[in-house]
Specification:
The chain is built from 3 helices and 5 strands; from the N terminus they run E-E-H-H-E-E-E-H. It is an alpha+beta fold and 103 residues long. Strand 3 and strand 4 form a beta hairpin.
Length: 103
């Protein structure tokens, strides 16, 4: 069994059945241009928080592992509102979805 804390994210997949030791992030796996994923990246990943806090019901995410300052890896997220085809600067807030909720 893994020694790290459990991950509460819809994109995280793990298989430890009968001695298997397999983990992956299915969101990062979809991006061929990303650096390789490692389990410790989940501890600081913004995706679970974005999915909890967003007002956009049809959010589409793309994630990649990037390096900052030459050695610190982190997950960067690109978000689009699929309903309004709007690129979101803040993935937690879609202005068009907010207008619809207020109407």
């Amino acid at each position: 069994m893994p020694a790290s804390d459990p991950v509460n994210c819809r994109y995280y997949y793990a298989d430890f059945f009968r001695g298997r030791d397999y983990e992956e992030c299915r969101l990062i796996k979809r991006n061929p241009d990303s650096r390789p994923w490692r389990r410790p990246l989940c501890d600081t990943c913004p995706v679970p928080r974005i999915l909890r806090e967003t007002n956009c019901h049809e959010i589409a995410l793309e994630a990649s592992v990037t390096k900052r300052w030459g050695f610190v890896e982190r997950v960067e997220v690109y978000a689009v509102c699929a309903k309004h085809l709007l690129e979101l600067n803040d993935p937690r807030h879609c202005p068009r979805c907010a207008e619809e909720e207020g109407a």
